[in-house]
Amino acid sequence: MFSIPQVLSLLLGFMRDQDSDLWKGFMFAFLLFLLSSLQSLFNHQYMYSCFTVGMRVKTAVMGLVYRKVR
After folding, report:
1. pLDDT(1) > 80
2. Which among 46, 32, 28, 24 is positioned nearest to 4, based on CA atoms?
3. Alpha-carbon dihedral angle through residues 52, 58, 60, 65, given to the nearest 10 degrees
């Protein structure tokens, strides 16, 4: 989460320096892509887990209310 701005800062520093090796730029760009992809993957997994827990809680509460009404 906090590593993407750091890598972006490194990439911008690479772009400012005229004498930098080209492979460093590709490495920073690939690292930025990789970290963004991992962040998206973990975020989707977290949201899925939250949704699943929410549905279980909703089902449990509905079951308790239904038993109480009957």
Report:
1. no
2. 32
3. -170
Q: In angstroms, rounded to a whole number, what is the distance separating the alpha carbons of residues 68 and 44?
A: 36
The DSSP annotation for the chain comes to: --HHHHHHHHHHHHHH-TTS-HHHHHHHHHHHHHHHHHHHHHHHHHHHHHHHHHHHHHHHHHHHHHHHH-
What global pTM score does this model have?
0.72
Domain count, the chain: 1
Residue range(s) defining the domain that contains residue 10: 3-69
pLDDT in tens, 3-42: 999 999 999 999 999 998 999 999 999 999 999 999 999 9
Q: How confident is the model at residue 68 (pLDDT cuts 50, 70, 90)?
A: confident
